[in-house]
Each structure stands twice: as C-alpha cells, then as structure tokens.
Design a protein that fits this description.
Layout: E1 3-5, E2 11-17, E3 24-28, H1 39-44, E4 50-54, H2 72-85, E5 91-96, H3 98-109, E6 114-120, H4 131-148, H5 150-157, H6 168-178, H7 183-194, E7 209-214, H8 222-231, E8 235-240, H9 247-250, H10 252-264
Parallel strand pairs: 3-4, 3-5, 5-6, 6-7, 7-8
Antiparallel strand pairs: 1-2, 2-4
C-alpha cells in the first residue's frame, strides 16, 4: 500500500490504480470505511482515470489526528497537502458521506484545484436538526467507538448502511471493514459532523457537480441529497435504485458508469 509523508511527519496511506495521470480521481471514504471500500471503483474506473483512494486521517494506516479534528476543514487541509505532495495540480474529486462533506469544503475553498465534483449520499449536518438531537448524535457516536468498541459498533450499525436487497456476504465484508475503525478517526469525524453546517456554501460551489444517492438510504435519505443538489449551481442528480447508503458498494457498476459519464463529458 503506497504512502506519502506530509508536514510534521504525517503519513497518509492510499490505494491507486490506472495510469492516466492527467485525469486523476481522488476517492474519499465515509465514517465507517477506509480506502479498500472503494475496491470495485479502483478496478472499474482505472481504464479511464488514475484512481487514488486515501485512508483519511485516523483511518486505515494513516496518521492519527492529535489533537482530534473538530471540523471537516481540518481534513480538507490535509487533502490539499496530499494532492500537493502527489504533484496533482487539478483533480476530479469524489466523496461519500463524510467524504462528501470533506469534498464540498475542499471544492469551496480550493475550487481552482478541482475539475469536477461528485458527492455521494452527502450529510447535511447540524444546520438542519435541533441542538439537543445534534448533541445526542455526537454522544452516541463517541460512546459507540470509545465504550462499545469498533467490533460492537460495526455489529450494531452495518445493516442500516444497506438496502434490504444487499446480499449477506456483501454486508459481512463491509462489517469487517467497519470493525477496523479507530477512535482518533471516528471521533474526529463525529465532532466534525456535530459542527457541520455547509448550507451557506452550497450556492458558492463553482465546479460542475453531480450528487448521487441510493434510493433506500436510511442514513442520509434522498430528500437530503436533493436539497444539496438543488442548492449547488451547475449540479445534476442521480438516483441508484434499490440501494442504501453504501450505494457504490451495492451497485458498483451503475455507480461507476455515472462517474465515468460525468467526468469525461465536456
């Protein structure tokens, strides 16, 4: 697994595939995932693109944030260092769930570095729920990772990430990946979700954008994705039928075809 060292000896590990370096896609995983979650996309996209899937800070084999991150801008600052270190002046950017929140922040703050943006099953965050509910969600996430542990967390939560159509072996594979989450990463994302309020920047996303959502998503339901789509200029929307929050895992072919069509069109 390749790795690259950023400032202050911060190490980011990543997976990559494909050789078209003038067309590089960066894949950003979600809260309970890591780079290997993009296994199918790494093979389905690599004939068109150079594909890179990172382990976000605190995930997989990448460095642990210390102190914990509290905002997704902390993650996108590291993403900027990462693409600079890889000598990638401009990228195609694809983020899923919490990765979508990072991608939106990055595309807003560093729009000159992004050719096109895809956000999959994006969260709307704290701006749309009460402070009481938002605080409870934070406490539940912190309790799950710090007290119950990753194994129990994965057992409790994995089925909600899929539709009722997902085969059991697919669910079990994703469960094993979720069992690998670590507190520094999961807790950093938990605090970042607690502080997430991007409703005032959607209208300032200038890059061409596609929003993708699974039809049966229980975590970030379709109306939330549609809200984000409707508030980002120059945005298109794609629904993937009979899939849940991990729509790119449940139907990787349809998902990847949407990505190819959107990224290669003029």
């Amino acid at each position: 697994m390749p790795k690259i060292t950023l400032s202050n000896n911060k190490v980011i590990h990543y997976l990559e595939s494909g050789i078209s370096h003038d067309k590089t896609i960066i894949l950003l995983h979600g809260l309970g995932n890591r780079s290997i979650t993009w296994e199918k996309q790494l093979s389905l996209l690599n004939s068109h693109f150079h594909v890179i899937a990172w382990d976000a800070p605190g995930y997989g084999e990448s460095f642990n944030p210390d102190p914990l991150y509290k905002n997704f801008s902390d993650f996108s600052d590291i993403l900027l260092e990462f693409v600079d270190a890889l000598n990638l002046p401009k990228i195609y950017l694809l983020g899923h769930s919490m990765g979508a929140a990072i991608a939106i922040d990055f595309s807003y703050r560093f729009s000159h570095r992004v050719k096109k943006l895809v956000v999959s099953n994006p969260p709307r965050g704290s701006a749309f729920i009460s402070e009481e509910k938002n605080k409870q969600k934070l406490n539940n996430r912190l309790y799950a990772i710090n007290e119950l542990g990753a194994y129990k967390l994965a057992k409790d939560r994995i089925k909600n990430l899929f539709s009722n159509n997902a085969p059991i072996d697919m669910i079990e594979k994703s469960e094993r990946i979720m069992q690998q989450v670590r507190s520094p990463g999961y807790a950093s994302v938990s605090y970042s979700l607690y502080n997430l309020n991007q409703k005032d920047i959607y209208s300032n996303i200038k890059v061409p954008t596609m929003v993708v959502c699974g039809e049966d998503d229980k975590i970030t339901p379709v109306p939330e994705a549609e809200y984000i789509h409707n508030n980002i200029p120059n945005s298109s929307f794609k629904l993937i039928p009979k899939t849940g929050h991990l729509c790119f895992v449940e139907n990787p072919t349809t998902f990847s075809n949407y990505i190819i069509d959107f990224f290669i069109q003029n």
